[in-house]
Design a protein that fits this description.
Elements lengths: L1 H54 L6 H12 L3 E6 L4 E4 L8 H13 L3 E5 L2 E7 L7 E8 L1 H51 L14 H83 L1 H9 L3 H15 L25 H30 L5 E4 H18 L3 E3 L7 E4 L3 H16 L5 E9 L4 E8 L6 H5 L16 H11 L3 E6 L5 E8 L10
Parallel strand pairs: 7-9
Antiparallel strand pairs: 1-2, 1-5, 3-4, 4-5, 6-8, 9-10, 10-12, 11-12
Helix pairs in contact: 1-2, 1-4, 4-5, 5-6, 5-8, 8-12, 9-10, 10-12
Length: 534
């Protein structure tokens, strides 16, 4: 912008200088030439006046010869011609008596007028002698070198003045352009940094035209308002997420304890049921024996001691007492089998509640991660993409083996990208987690990292052979909760998009050849221009 303004101003100054200097130089040159011509004619008139005394008044030629000699001493060439065209006297130089001099002398004698003619470096002036016809003519030739020198000096000074004025105009143009463009460039840089996430940046309000200063103040008010709103939003999300984590953690712990107690109660119920089944079998066996030999049964009954009878009564009573389990609020009614406890599906329901609590925890953790990702403004450094990708693939290997999947490590590459420390790890973790959640057992996930030198980009691809994603799902995948499902929070790709965009990159979804989904992440290569603050 500065260069364009300065060039436009300089072109205007140059046009004005040309329009002013050329006519001025032409006028000054014409005046110099006219002055030189007049001086030459005046010198010829002086010689003509002296020659008139000799040619017209017939006086001795002393005065004429003296005038010719004086002209010769001044560097002029003089020739005096009679009315018949014959040469009367002349200086030693032949310029005033050559054919050109004779020609203008003849014209003067025939027309009784003063004539000047330029030939080469000489200006010839012919004037008549006296007022009578055919009295004679004087031709004076004067070198025009002095005239040419004065004209050249005059044009030189004019050119030097024009160049000086043009240089001054260019300097003023650059100063004016910088005065106008510098605050605009500062405002543009500030707006770019604000767009990159540096919310506390402000534009300078000093210097420049009043309109630009007013624009900078308006921009600063907008930036302050934006910073306030964004910080309030981020703070609210972070506070809510943080506050929800504590009760969710406590609730999950209590459910874990309750699940353990339920398992113990189920085990106790099973043991009690087994004991009751054994007692019932013994009672049936005794009844069958009594039915087979009544006399033996009566004798055995009469031989029992009172203590034994009381023990049998206590055992019978104990069979009618409620069955409880330590730490459990559930009680089996008298005569009710523990196997028919109310809420026999309690363990399954409890497992479902734990899954929902786990999903809520992941959702809260995702919201907190988004808030932290949006709040971070870090300086970018050169990060080896393939090396970090290989490290993350190794970290996910245990999960991959547990689910019977395959995660293919990227090929060795020296590609590096400008990224904030730790951002690439978060990007890869979220994308790999989504891919592994989508592919079935035996599925494949491949990570590739290549350098696109033509566009100064590093292209990172996470390719899976899962079920893929519909076009409608792709359009909403990077929005918060846009791709949520029962197995995830719907924030993973939103976090990826936020981190990639904050680092000056792009992320998109594409179909894998043969089926599946490919996440393409393009990052600025470290071979490009240096990083800027996010």
């Amino acid at each position: 912008m500065t260069r364009r303004i300065a060039l436009a101003f300089a072109a205007l100054v140059a046009v004005l200088l040309v329009a002013a200097v050329l006519p001025l130089g032409a006028a000054m040159q014409s005046r110099e030439e006219e002055s030189f011509r007049f001086a030459t004619i005046s010198a010829a008139r002086q010689v003509s006046a002296a020659a008139e005394e000799t040619l017209v008044d017939h006086h001795p030629p002393d005065a004429m010869n003296e005038a010719v000699a004086a002209a010769e001493r001044d560097g002029d060439c003089v020739g005096v011609f009679a009315g018949t065209g014959a040469l009367v006297t002349a200086t030693k130089c032949g310029t005033a008596k050559d054919s050109a001099a004779i020609a203008i002398a003849t014209r003067t004698l025939s027309g009784k007028s003063e004539i000047t003619a330029r030939s080469g470096d000489w200006l010839r002036a012919a004037v008549p002698v006296g007022d009578e016809d055919d009295s004679g003519a004087v031709v004076l030739a004067r070198s025009a070198e002095s005239l040419d020198h004065r004209v050249d000096v005059m044009w030189g000074w004019l050119a030097l003045t024009a160049v000086a004025c043009l240089a001054l105009g260019v300097a003023l143009a650059f100063a004016l352009a910088r005065w106008v463009s510098r605050p605009l460039l500062a405002l543009d840089t500030t707006a770019a940094r604000l767009g990159d996430g540096v919310l506390d940046v402000r534009a300078p309000t000093e210097g420049g035209p009043p309109e630009v200063r007013r624009l900078a103040r308006t921009f600063n008010r907008m930036a302050e308002r934006t910073e306030t709103l964004v910080h309030a939003h981020r703070g609210w999300v972070a506070d809510v997420s943080h506050q929800l984590r504590t009760p969710l953690t406590a609730l999950r712990l209590r459910l874990d304890v309750l699940a353990g107690e339920a398992a113990e109660a189920a085990a106790e119920q099973q043991a009690a049921a087994e004991q009751q089944a054994v007692a019932e079998q013994q009672a049936v066996a005794e009844q069958q024996a009594a039915a087979a030999d009544p006399e033996s049964a009566v004798a055995a009954a009469s031989s029992q001691s009172p203590d034994t009878s009381r023990g049998s009564d206590f055992a019978a009573a104990s069979n009618q007492s409620p069955v409880t389990s330590p730490g459990s609020d559930f009680v089996a009614a008298p005569g009710q089998s523990p196997a028919t406890w109310p809420g026999s599906d309690f363990a399954a329901e409890l497992a479902g509640v734990q899954e929902e609590i786990e999903r809520l925890s992941r959702l809260v953790d995702g919201l907190l991660a988004v808030a932290r990702a949006e709040a971070v403004v870090a300086r970018r450094v050169a990060v080896p993409v393939a090396e970090v990708a290989a490290e993350r693939v190794s970290a996910w290997e245990p999960v991959v083996r547990e689910h019977g999947q395959q995660l293919i490590v990227p090929a060795v590459s020296r590609a590096a990208a400008w990224l904030a420390p730790g951002d690439l790890e978060q990007i890869l973790d979220n994308v790999i987690a989504n891919a592994l959640a989508a592919v079935p057992t035996g599925g494949h996930v491949r990570v590739d990292a290549v350098a696109d030198r033509e566009r100064d980009r590093v292209v990172l691809r996470v390719i899976d052979d899962g079920p893929g994603m519909s076009d409608a799902a792709k359009q909403s995948a990077f929005r918060r909760f846009g791709a949520s499902s029962g197995a995830g929070s719907g924030l993973g790709l939103a976090i990826v998009d936020r981190l990639v965009t904050a680092n000056g990159g792009e992320v998109r979804l594409a179909d894998t050849v043969g089926g599946g989904l490919t996440v393409v992440v393009e990052l600025p290569a470290a071979s490009s221009a240096g990083p800027s603050d996010r």
